[in-house]
Amino acid sequence: MQRKGLFQSSTRAFWHEARQAKDFSWFGFLHSYIYGRWTYFYIAMGSGRHPLARRLAPLLNWIGRRIVSSAGSAAGPSVKMEDTYHGKVVTLAAARQLVSVKEDIALGDQEQIVPYALARDIVLKNPDHIVALDCPCRAAKENPCLPLDVCLIIGEPFAGFVVQHHPQKARWISSQHAQEILQAEDKRGHVHHAFFKDAMLGRFYAICNCCACCCGAMQAQRSGTPMLASSGYVAQVNSALCLKCRKCEKTCPFQAIQMQGSAVINPAVCMGCGVCAGQCTPGAIQMVRMQSKGMPLEIEALIRAAQAAAN
Fold first, then answer.
1. Residue from 304, 85, 43, 38 nearest 194 by CA
2. Residues near 67 by Cβ (< 8 Å), separated by ≥ 6?
3. Residues facing 287 on adjacent strands
4. Res 124 pLDDT > 80
5. Which of 210, 245, 259, 282 is 20 to 30 Å from 79 by CA-CA measure?
6. Which domains does the chain have, with CATH numbers?
7. What does the DSSP 8-state code read for residue 6?
8. Whole-model pTM?
9. 3-state SS of the chain: helix, strand, coil percent to 5?
10. Distance CA 146, CA 138 (A)
11. Which residues, listed in sequence order, are joined to residue 242 by a DSSP beta bridge?
């Protein structure tokens, strides 16, 4: 029988993993525990959607500065809040790779892929341990998009911690089921984000399938806080195939498409999510690599590169 309360088995596993981090601190672990244990309250307060958010704004700002200051002691004085919690846009194919990893991997400091000062390691322990969690951003909305259980927590100690502390909102799923969720969300026109957070041991821990109306990170991005990194791709239109139906313009979650006779992509705004390509019936839109957008988070290629470097 599992112990209840603060020292459940998953808490002890998280503590053990955190203790091995080179920048471990008591404050950092407390932050990690609060984020993982009270995720819905944390996200609702951070996004300003909780009824107490305005009243507690001064305290939240102080805590936010304390977190950034603590992180900055290791990463330098220029670290910003978005460095501590951010996402990498990934295509459907790349997202499916992330839920299909069969072996433990450790890919540290992926600066070319995740251009933030903190939280950019890709370490997957027990990558076949996958949990479907009710999306905290959607849950914080009065009339959220459905379904709710579209956030995928991947690997340990994160999956075990989440499912043990949120038993009513989380469930174990298989890699195949995870791929089915990704496919269904892609058809709905939602964006796949690989999320990283300092409180999650500074590394990748989840794939969120985000809608522009509910996602706090996408709303922050549109408001000028760069919490998301491009997939490394941009959309490209074959005007000869374009039906001028405006479907891509209406479904682009980053408002990167305008109709000028045919669809025209603004590459400076396009995040390379691939939603427009997935929604384009005649196949007039393709995703192409753009070097200035950074490297894609395509885990199979990263694993091959790491193995080649080791040899």
1. 85
2. 31, 81, 84, 198
3. 235
4. yes
5. 210
6. 9-230+296-310 (no CATH), 233-292 (3.30.70.20)
7. T
8. 0.88
9. 40, 20, 40
10. 8
11. none
